[in-house]
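Obj: model holo form, ligand = zinc ion.
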Amino acid sequence: MTIVGENIDAYCLKCKLILSHVILFKVDGVAHRVKCKTCGAEHKYRGTMPPIKKTAAVRKPGAVRAKKPVAEKVTVNTAPLLWNLKIHNMGPSKAMRNYSIKETYKVNDVINHPVFGIGFVEETFWDKSISVLFNDSVKLMGMNIN
Ligand SMILES: [Zn+2]
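Output (holo C-alpha cells):
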C-alpha cells in the first residue's frame, strides 16, 4: 500500500527541523518513509522528535570522580630528634650501663650498646625485651636472657 502526497510533520535530519514531509509510503497505517518538502531528502519517518543520540549524553562535571591519589605513608623517623633531646636533658650523674643481653633493664635506663651507642630504654616487654631509643631509630633488644 503506497500513499503518495499525504503530508506529515516529521523531523528532517538534514534540515534539523520539524518540517512538512510527504509520506512516501505507510506500513500498517503508520508513516514509514517520508520526503522532506524543504530539502527533498527521503528518509525513514522518525516522528517529530529528533533522534536521541546516546553518545550525546552530557556528563555532569564532577560526575566522574577522580581517584584520590593514595598518599604514601611517610614514616617520619623522630628517633634522632628525641634521642638528641634525651641526651640534652640527661644529667651528668645519670648512670649508663653497658648493654648485655643477660642484664635486666627498666624504663628510663640509659644503656651503652657496643654497636648502636647510647640508648634510652622506653619500654620493657615481659622482662625479656626492651624498646630502646638509639640515635638513629628505636630498636627492640633482648634482655634477661641467659
Ligand atoms: Zn529537509
